[in-house]
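Subgroup meeting minutes
Present: P.N., E.W., G.H.
Scribe: E.W.

1. P.N. recapped why we're keeping a running log of single-chain structure predictions: easier to compare across weeks, and new members can see raw inputs and outputs side by side.
2. G.H. added today's entry (290 aa).
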Amino acid sequence: MGTLESNNSGVETYTWGIEYREPLTDHLNASFLWLNEGHLPNNHRDGQAVQLWWHSLPNSIGLVFEAGVGPYRYYDTHTFPIDPEFRDAHGWGAVASAEIDWYLASHWFTFLRLNQVETSNKYGSSSLALGAGYQFASTPDFSPGTGENPRWEIDGLLGERIGNTAHSETGMSEGISARAMLTSHWTASVTFIAGQGTLLDWRSGIAAQLWLEQQLTSRFRVGAGAGAFMVSEDDNLQNASSPSHLAAMVSVTVACSLTSHWVARVVWDRIGTGDDHDADILHFGVGYKF
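Output recorded in log:
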């Protein structure tokens, strides 16, 4: 978490992010980053980046230097003083990062990171953030479809839907999801989601996603997914027969095995539409594996 400055106006705001890294070689890592660029005047932007990192020392204790670069998919709620009050803009850019890390013997590390975001038709930003992370030990073996690792999972989900609007209205959200583990790293899911209380043009929908996942410990598993969300066009009963349309959906999840069959799960979804009805959905749930 840290501070961010617009390269166009010089105005400052906050920034924060959540990142997962996977080692590739002794000096290269790949990462998935969910970056929030705070609230600049008339612009509330965040998005996801995939980066390739070089780091100076492998498996080290102490000081490490790192540099990363990769593409950035952003979602910007652009606000206006007159009706319509906002517009959800999407686009592509790049994130370049430089970082100084201090690794501790307990697997924890702290870091100071400089991010530079550049986009083709929007403002750029520079940010400086201080953070902490945890480095997991060797990845445990995971073979889906065995007695200890069932292939199927059904989750009941409950949480909050946040409209990407000028005022970020919130409302209840519920879901039920079926997940199928295809391999030790790939999972497919189908999820029904219903939401209330936000100024969006959809009330419910069905998501189909493909997930890239990693088993961190014998209990914890993380993943990032992408796919499509079929939404209702009008949150009005008299127009319930209106045809549906597709939106893009990007998600991250963390699951914790409670027993050999029961799991607790957290899912954060970002739905990107083409008609200014983007939304974030945060779900907490319990699932059964079989």
